[in-house]
Write a structure and sequence with these properties.
With 183 residues, this protein is α+β, with helices and mostly antiparallel strands. It has a five-stranded antiparallel beta sheet, with helices on one face. Strands 4-6-5 form a three-stranded antiparallel beta sheet, covered by helices on one side. Helix 1 packs parallel to helix 2. It is globular, with a radius of gyration of 17 Å.
């Protein structure tokens, strides 16, 4: 398992999500698994977009020159997560766009309205890394999780008053999404 993304840098991402960063990848029978983290659903979707493009190409040379508005609908949150990533992959494969910044304007269990910032692929400046053929339904998950005290920080590191920190009262909730890419 490889962890990527470091500490998220947007205002909504001012702290690492449970010290895991934005995402991690895992091998899956000739495919590539992606597990994404966010404190909110919006952060989860933004981090998923970032993660996919970070897998596709080296993002350090990508500039946020163009903004694309993206709207997607689906019957539920998991399928919306898949639809979001599939639309971004279409923009990459079909329109040769690479994105590095994502702003989620509105997100419900069945619809997303967002902006992606990036530019056209320029093979002289952009190093392509991994080809992703498709986003699959296999092992697709979006879930809200709670991590209790002791699993992510000590009493001394707790943001609450250390005396108030206990297994029952100190916990953090976060969102996790998982998808398998056909590579």
């Amino acid at each position: 398992m490889k962890k990527y993304g470091g500490v998220p840098q947007s205002t909504a991402d001012s702290q690492a999500v449970l010290a895991k960063g934005r995402y991690e990848t895992f091998n899956h029978t000739a495919d590539l698994g992606l597990r994404v983290f966010g404190r909110t659903r919006e952060e989860l979707f933004a981090n998923a977009g970032y993660a996919m493009f970070d897998i596709l190409t080296d993002l350090k040379n990508v500039q946020a020159k163009e903004t694309l508005k993206i709207k997607q609908e689906a019957p539920n949150l998991e399928e919306l997560f898949l639809s979001w990533l599939s639309e971004l992959l279409y923009q990459y494969n079909g329109k040769e766009m690479i994105f590095k910044k994502f702003a989620i304007d509105k997100l419900t269990d069945q619809a997303i309205s967002a902006r992606a910032q990036g530019e056209k692929v320029d093979l002289e400046r952009h190093r392509l890394k991994t080809e992703i053929k498709a986003v699959t339904y296999h092992e697709l998950k979006v879930q809200k999780l709670t991590v209790k005290h002791g699993e992510t920080h000590s009493q001394r590191q707790c943001r609450r008053q250390p005396k108030q920190c206990s297994t029952l009262t100190c916990h953090r909730q976060y969102w996790q999404g998982q998808v398998i890419f056909d590579v």
